[in-house]
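Before a colleague's protein record goes any further, I have to sign it off. What it holds is a sequence and that sequence's fold in token form. Would you go through it and say whether the fold makes sense for this chain? The record follows directly below this note.
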Amino acid sequence: MEFDFKIEGLSELAEDLANLEKLGKQKQLTQNALFYASQPMFEEIKAQAPKAEKAYYRYYRGSAKARRAGRPQNSRKLMRPGNLRRNIARKRIRVDGAVAVAIYVKSKAFYYRFIERGTPTILAVPFIRPAYDHYKELSVERFKERYAQYVQAAFERRQIQISQDLENASE
């Protein structure tokens, strides 16, 4: 005994599932939601980063190669306050093929780790970890809220398209 059957509407269902899958893979929307979610944490880290009271001089001894050659090139450079704050940034990154957003300190402010964690002679003044601890739950909620808006908008666009297709089919 043989049976032949045909399921109508399966191609439309497959198309709908493919459209939903595309939404899940849209990296731009995910990154936008991540940027939105990380904004309060980012602002708090920048606000809490220590800042010098006034301008100061940073002294350089020149390159090691020049010092070995007998040309030490000692110099100093006037540094304006706020270098650490200016070098805190966010960027899009890939983590195991997924998208993510990183808050990081640029290499010009390499000394942030000495301030954040302390040294044997300098007391720690953490400013990154407290902001993370305070805003991590809020960031997750903000991400869920923003991504839910994107999904809802996609469903509304899809519903409008489906209702227009049904109207066209009934005519």
About this structure: The longest strand covers residues 88-95. Residues 1-7 have pLDDT under 50 and may be disordered. Strands lie at 56-60, 75-79, 88-95, 98-105. Helices lie at 10-25, 27-48, 64-68, 83-86, 112-117, 128-170.
